[in-house]
Structure formats: C-alpha cells, structure tokens
Amino acid sequence: MVGTAHDAACYDEWHEREQARRESAERAAAERAVHERLPGVPAPLNGKEIITLLGIPQGRTIGAAIRHLQELHIDHGPLSREEAEAALRAWAAEQALPLATAGQGTAAPLPVRSPASADRYRTR
User: Fold this and answer.
1) Which H/E stretch holds residue 5?
2) Is the whole model's pTM more than 0.70, yes or no?
C-alpha cells in the first residue's frame, strides 16, 4: 500500500510533537538532577549546616547547594569546612540568594520528633 501526502504530513506533525515531548522530558529531568545529590560523592557540609550557614529554608535549593559542593569535590578534591563555606557563600551570591549575616542563619529550626511521637509508628 502506498502512502499519501496526507499520511506523510500527519507523520511529520506527529514526529515533531513526539520530539518536542521527548526534549521537554529531557530538560525536566536535567533540571531535577541539578537538585539531587551525586551518589558516593561526599560533601563537607550537610543540609542542616547549609540551612544555618545561608539562612535559607529547607527545600530544593539545599539539594542544589549540596550538589554544588559535590561538583567542587570532583573538580578540585576534598574541601575543608572553611573552603566549603566560602564556596557556598559565593555560589549563593551567584544564585541571587539572600545571605544570612556573619554565617548566622535565620531559618527556623527543624522540627524534632519526640520519642513519644515516634512510638506511635512502631508495630507491636
């Protein structure tokens, strides 16, 4: 069976839509990856320390900050705590994040689960 010009036009339209969908999914995956930790690569500061240092709330930005420290570790080797803090302050300035003054964070403390509330979830 021989295809018609209409079939070719429909295929071209479908192909363009499918290619745009795939590219959109790839871009979304790349954006998500920026906020995820690299497995097996150490970071000199953890999320709570970053929250305190930069004074920013818990969220995706903390993941991006950890990822930045991990990439620095890959590119330049292990960083001291002081080097990591300086690098994070510079990174935060590049990202236009508001910085806490003198390393004193303004973020609210993270909730701590009391032992009594933890017992609620234990199976007996």
Assistant:
1) helix 5-34
2) no
